[in-house]
Every structure is written in C-alpha cells, then in structure tokens.
Design brief:
The protein is of the alpha+beta class and 278 residues long. It contains seven helices and ten strands. The protein folds into two domains: 41-182, 2-Layer Sandwich (Mago nashi protein), CATH 3.30.1560; 185-273.
Length: 278
C-alpha cells in the first residue's frame, strides 16, 4: 500500500511538472529566456529621424516581459501612453515576430548588401537621406539582438521578393498596429468600439465579415478628447489582380471604416468600400 502511495505521489509530481512546462510553453513563443528584470523591454521598435542633423531617436514602442506596453503618444512625440497586453495578445505578437518572420534571423549587414545589389540591378532609386531608419531591438535574459533598415516601407514596396525585407516589414506592421491600439486606449477599448462597428457592418452589409484590432491602421487624437480611428481591410494583392478583384468573396474585398469617438457622444461610423453582393 505504501509503495502504491509513493508511486502515485511520484507520478503526480511528474504530471504536474509536465503540465507546468506546457503552461510555460504556451505563455511564450520566444526562442530565448525573457529578462528577469521586469523593467527591461523585450522588444523595442525605434525610428531614427533622418531629417535631423542630431539623429532624433524616437522609441515608437516598447513591450516588456509581462506584456506592459509603452508607445509614443503621437508620431515623433516623446510623450508616452501605455497599455497592458493580455497573455494571448502578447503570445500572438511573439509568434508573428519570432516564429512567422524569424526576426532574430535577420542581420543588418547582409540585408543592406542585398538591398544595394538589387537596387543597382533593377535601377531602383535610393531613398532620400531624410527617410527614417527603423531599428528593432530584442533583449532576453542573456542575449541582445538589433537589426535596422533604412526607409523600410519604401524598400518593401520596391523589393517585394526580398524575403528579409518583407519579414522586417511584417514585423513593423505588427508592432505599428500595437502602437495604434495603445493610442486608441488599449485592446479592451478597441474591442468595445469594434462591437458597435461589427454590429453596424452585419446590419448594413451582411457577409462583409468582422473587423478586428489587427485592422486598425490609423489613430488621430484631438485636444478636446476626440479620437478618429480608421479600420482598413485590403485584399491580398494576388487576389486583387484577378479580374479587378470583383470576384472576391465579400469578406476579402477592400473595406474602410472610419470612427469618431467624441466625449459623451455616440460613435460616428462611416463605411467605405466594395460591400456589394457578388
């Protein structure tokens, strides 16, 4: 009887350890140990403004190990706004950065050499000296990685088949979306706004599909507390080229929704796009 009890205790401990390991694996998708110091940012996206002789550095976004986020309150501003990511939101961002786009596998010098060679070969113009430099910095418990790209958006447009540039651009788009959400009041606020937006869409344009926080592309804050939000869904370029995109399913067509949030007033929602039935 005693041996059976001991065996049960050992098995329980092993199963508990396995469950703990699984839970830990579900909480992070980083290929490195997160910093022990909660004040150390895990991911930082910085824009270095090329228009200034002093190379003005603006930390557009910082995400900490516990999911805390700080972002520039406005483009180029040193004022900060903050929010808290849920574990699932933080995990999704980690997967986009480190699994889907292998941010740690991107190295500045080889990327710059490839960009220069492709521009010469295809006679693409160099970006102007005033174009911003995007810098990604990743910091773990015992590691630090940084990668940069000049005029990343322009370069991604010029070189759609350069894989590292496209991966970096996807990382920038992901993190810029987080910035927009933070400026709009955080994920809970955006989810409340989207409840009204998606209800309007379902009523006026059935089959159009629901928008999500990932579709938030622009936030403009006014001194009186008014916020202008723009949600946008673009068709996949390959699909859009087929017959002008008219044969696309309704939930894959171009859609733009503008929202004005005014203090003490109902939301003002306007819908633009190809929402007609096929």
């Amino acid at each position: 009887m005693r041996q059976t009890a001991i065996t049960c205790c050992v098995m329980s401990a092993l199963l508990a350890g396995q469950a703990s390991g699984l839970l830990a694996a579900e909480r992070t998708a980083t290929p490195f140990a997160l910093p022990r110091d909660p004040s150390t940012p895990v991911v930082t996206m910085t824009f270095v403004d090329g228009r200034s002789a002093d190379a003005v550095v603006v930390e557009e976004l910082m995400i900490f190990a516990d999911g805390r986020v700080t972002a520039a309150a406005e483009p180029g501003s040193r004022a900060r706004v903050s929010a808290q990511l849920s574990p699932s939101e933080w995990l999704k961002i980690q997967r986009i950065l480190f699994v889907d786009n292998d941010l740690l596998g991107c190295q500045t010098e080889p990327i710059e050499d490839s960009i220069a060679a492709l521009r010469r070969q295809r006679q693409r113009p160099q970006p102007g000296p005033d174009a911003a430099m995007t810098v990604f910095t990743v910091q773990g418990d015992q590691m630090k990685h940084a990668v940069r790209c000049h005029a990343l958006g322009l370069t991604a447009t010029q070189l759609p088949d350069q894989p590292e540039v496209q991966r970096l651009f996807a990382c920038q788009q992901c993190l810029q979306n987080v910035v927009h959400v933070v400026r709009a009041g955080g994920y809970e606020q955006i989810h409340r706004t989207l409840e009204s937006v998606n209800t309007r869409l379902a009523r006026q344009h059935p089959g159009c599909g629901r928008l999500s926080s990932a579709d938030l592309h622009l936030v403009d804050r006014h001194p009186d507390g008014t916020r202008y939000l723009q949600f946008c869904r673009m068709p996949c370029p390959e699909n859009a080229l087929q017959n002008g995109g008219v044969d696309l399913p309704t939930d894959e067509r171009f859609l733009m929704v503008s929202v004005y949030e005014r203090p003490g007033q109902p939301l003002e929602i306007s819908i633009v796009g190809d929402t007609t039935d096929p």
